[in-house]
Design goal:
14% of the residues lie in helices and 54% in strands. The chain has 112 residues and is mostly beta strands.
Length: 112
């Protein structure tokens, strides 16, 4: 017990010994930005482009510390793919593996 108290006391004294004094400076450097463009969406079936955009707001408190929030979104893209003959497996909403047998090649619409 006494050993832990001594270690804690040494830690506190050590932290005070290496503390850096605060600078009196201007702490308010806000900024904002936005962008719009074409975003490449690739779900493993070949890439497609969709219109998307983003925005951001932030503040730099000093040269080493800042806060930033980003938000954005994109449009949808899709295509038709052919599911090959055989067994197709996937997970359902309960995270259980479910397999289905596909007798013939079947077209399917895929969107991201």
């Amino acid at each position: 017990m006494m050993r832990n108290v001594f270690r804690s006391l040494c830690l506190v004294v050590g932290l005070f010994a290496v503390s850096v004094p605060a600078q009196a400076a201007d702490y308010w450097h806000p900024y904002a930005g936005a962008g719009v463009g074409s975003i490449l969406i690739d779900a493993g079936l070949g890439g497609k482009t969709a219109l998307g955009g983003y925005g951001m707001v932030g503040n730099d408190f000093n040269e080493n510390v800042g806060v930033e929030v980003r938000f954005g979104g994109s449009g949808k893209t899709g295509s038709t793919v052919t599911v090959p003959q055989g067994q197709v497996c996937g997970y359902n909403q309960f995270e259980q593996l479910v397999c289905t047998t596909v007798a013939t090649p079947t077209p399917a619409n895929v969107s991201v």
